[in-house]
Design a protein that fits this description.
The complex is a heterodimer of chains A (315) and B (254). By secondary structure, chain A is an all-alpha fold. Chain A contains 13 helices and 2 strands; from the N terminus they run αααααβααααβαααα. The longest helix of chain A is centred in the first third of the chain and has 28 residues. The chains are: A mainly alpha (315), B alpha/beta (254).
Chain lengths: 315, 254
């Protein structure tokens, strides 16, 4: 058991060290591409971490999580288009809008369970997608170019690649720390208990929906932050970030890395996006290779890569 | 007469054309152990599920300590002092025994919107959990994950979880189900101790256990209470004999 934990911790520590030192590598080799790729990876890892909170710990299979990427992104983009460039305004609005969206769709969809929950979250996310497509003032289908990154009045310069990367990384580590506190708290115990046996939790006196809803809102808010980062990273936001396949990508990252493990989604995001990047250089049918790979992990590696690591070092 | 702890008044529940609960009335006094017996399909679990709120009755009322709880949702009934164990073991399988009980204690320790501190380090919850586990003889198994506990241990844990909510009334749905001879005997002994502190409604097939424990017994047949009384009254009731107990030898030995 301890060996298993050690192997996982070792991999996590290695990844953390690698992520921290990456800009150093870039400045030595001049390989800007790695920094660009990993900035994107870190942002998606944050989104996957937030999805893991509801999916892995809460047992809520949300198939609409990418909606928050779009909402956070559009909050930044729309405010920028209206001439409000301050990050101190943009980002709180991005978080608040995501939280509000999560509150509304959570209150409606958490009345359902299982497949219905998957379908209704998917439907709400698609609704957000079509609404964004209809925003003619903000680019509609074509998306919205963001000419200036969020301005934090000299505190940090988001146009500086290294500074921006470290900001994303800090958000990711902060997100993981937050989730680790939450899942071990009283609240987290209730949410995980509900995943395990809802009827039992009700019988001992917990109102299920209330706790699930709060968890749903927390996850949506964290993902909204990822959305604000993503929009700044690409200097662009379009309805495509909310499309259901994006939600699927996030689910794959979580499952690949290991549902219900703190660091799993980070590993999942790295493996998924690095593979996507390299496989797509060889063939545009890269999903044909990634698909079977995912199948193997799901079939033989329950608990994802993190679970696999655990068993390898035990066996 | 003092207000009974539990009063069930003309309760009716239908499933399609079947009357699963047919105008059932019964009363449980404080400190009483009230057994409900009846053949399979008599509607015992249906009745218990209405008492806990998992199932809504179509007619009638349920009063707990004089308060109408007929429409109160399950989680709030727990707060009013009602606890249940399930016929088919229902625990949190991927949590430890201590976690299961600590959560039950936590449910009655104010709201659980605490996001920061480590729940497993809240001392009074852990102590309450350990105390409840010690009571049912599972103290040494506190850190074992539930799915690794034996069936008998899980039944005992069900009881510990119910006790940790500090109930006024315990609804036990076949706590002996699937237990061996020794385990059953242990459970009877355990219930003998627990009943001193809390009123119990016991649904059970094990007649030895029922006649050893019960202050009063209600006999349920086809959703109706056909008799209610002390064990000796029930044993000598002709209708009960005909309908249910007739040829069971255990009753003769009592």
């Amino acid at each position: 058991m301890t060996a298993a934990i050690n192997a996982r911790n070792a991999v996590a520590a290695l990844v953390v060290a690698g992520l921290l030192l990456l800009p150093l590598y870039t400045s030595i080799t001049g390989n800007i591409f790695a920094l660009t790729l990993f900035t994107r990876i870190v942002i998606f890892a944050l989104a996957a971490v937030s999805l893991n909170l509801i999916m892995g710990y809460g047992g809520m299979m949300s198939f609409g999580h990418a909606a928050y990427l779009g909402i956070g992104g559009y909050a930044v983009g729309m405010l920028a288009a209206e001439g409000i460039g301050s990050g101190f305004v943009q980002w709180p609005v991005a978080l608040a809008a995501s939280a509000l969206f999560a509150l509304v769709i959570g209150a409606l969809s958490l009345r359902t369970r299982g497949v219905y929950f998957i379908m209704i979250t998917l439907a709400f996310a698609q609704m957000a997608y079509y609404i964004a497509s209809g925003l003619a003032r903000y680019g509609g289908d074509d998306g919205l170019t963001i000419y200036d990154r969020s301005d934090f009045s000299g505190l940090i310069n988001l146009s500086n690649k290294v500074q921006f990367y470290y900001l994303c990384l800090a958000c990711l580590f902060g997100g993981i720390y937050l989730v680790s506190r939450i899942v071990n708290s009283r609240f987290g115990m209730v949410v995980q208990g509900l995943r395990s046996n809802e009827q039992r939790m009700q019988a001992i006196g917990f109102p299920a929906t209330r706790y699930r809803l709060v968890c749903f809102v927390i996850a949506g808010t964290i993902c909204g932050l990822a959305g604000a980062l993503l929009a700044n990273n690409t200097d662009f936001v379009s309805p495509a970030v909310m499309y259901w396949t994006r939600s699927g990508d996030l689910m794959v990252m979580v499952i690949l890395g290991g549902m219900g493990s703190l660091f799993g989604p980070v590993i999942g995001a790295i493996v998924y996006l690095v593979l996507e990047e390299f496989l797509s250089q060889f063939t545009e049918y890269w999903a044909l290779i990634l698909g079977p790979l995912l199948l193997l992990v799901v079939l033989f590696g329950r608990g994802g890569i993190m679970g696999l690591l655990g068993r390898l070092s035990r066996g | 007469m003092a207000e009974p702890l539990l009063r069930v008044d003309q309760l009716v529940r239908r499933f399609g054309g079947i009357l699963a609960t047919d105008h059932v009335s019964l009363e449980v006094a404080r400190g009483e152990l009230h057994a409900i017996i009846g053949p399979n399909g008599a509607g015992k679990t249906t009745l218990i599920s209405q008492l806990t709120g998992q199932l809504m009755p179509h007619e009638g009322r349920i009063l707990l300590a004089g308060r109408d709880i007929t429409r109160v949702p399950p989680y709030r009934r727990s707060g009013l002092g009602l606890a249940r164990s399930f016929q088919i073991t229902s625990l949190l399988p991927d949590f430890t025994a201590a976690d299961n009980v600590a959560l039950a204690a936590q449910a009655h320790d104010g709201h659980s919107f605490h996001f920061w501190g480590n729940a497993r380090k809240v001392r009074h919850l852990r102590e309450a959990a350990q105390a409840a586990l010690d009571r049912v003889g599972l103290g040494h198994r506190a850190d074992v994950v539930v799915s690794r506990l034996s069936h008998g241990e899980q039944r005992e844990l069900e009881l510990a979880v119910a006790l940790a909510t500090r109930p006024q009334l315990l609804l036990l749905d076949e706590p002996m189900a699937g237990l061996g001879m020794t385990e059953s005997a242990r459970m009877v002994q355990l219930l003998q101790e627990v009943r001193r502190e809390v009123a119990i409604v016991l649904v059970e097939h094990d007649m030895n256990a029922v006649f050893a424990l019960a202050d009063r017994i209600s006999v349920l047949v086809y959703g109706r209470v056909i008799a209610s009384g002390t064990p000796s009254e029930i044993r000598s009731n002709d209708e009960v004999k005909r309908a249910y107990l007739g040829d069971q030898q255990v009753v003769a030995h009592g």
